[in-house]
Design a protein that fits this description.
The chain has 136 residues and is an alpha+beta fold. It is built from one helix and ten strands. A hairpin with a 2-residue loop joins strand 8 and strand 9.
């Protein structure tokens, strides 16, 4: 193979790789921050949608902001259903989850973050924030 043939072959391979990289790239997904506050609880973090069917929340922190004998809690709800509550049981404390992911088996159109505080006598007012999935 002469020098000109090799240069042409390398150029062709580079062009094919560039087209593959662009064709394989999906829409960019920027994480959305959330900060949801009820009268006695607060939850913060970031939410990302790596695909149409999955969400990932990172650095999720739950705060119990009142000493009223209720446990602060939060959960994620999607258009397909709700995920389990996560809670803390001590006043004026916080807990952090580094990563929480969810899939529902179908397209996730939105995720709602809900927080409140509860005990055996009842729950506080619920606060929530809904974030749309830009991939759907």
């Amino acid at each position: 193979m002469n020098r000109m043939t090799r240069v042409g072959a390398v150029a062709g391979i580079c062009a094919a790789l560039a087209v593959t990289a662009v064709a394989g790239a999906g829409p960019a997904s920027a994480a959305s921050s959330f900060d949801v506050r009820s009268d006695v609880s607060r939850v913060t973090g970031s939410l990302d949608f790596p695909s149409r069917t999955k969400f990932t929340a990172t650095n999720v922190t739950l705060y119990d902001t009142s000493c009223d004998n209720r446990s602060a809690r939060f959960r994620f709800v999607t258009n397909n259903g709700a995920y389990k509550w996560r809670q803390i049981d001590q006043c004026n404390t916080s807990a952090t989850w580094s990563s929480i992911s969810g899939t529902d088996g179908g397209d996730i159109k939105w995720v709602r973050v809900e927080t409140q505080a509860c005990n055996s006598l009842g729950c506080s007012t619920m606060a929530s924030q809904t974030i749309d999935n830009p991939r759907t």
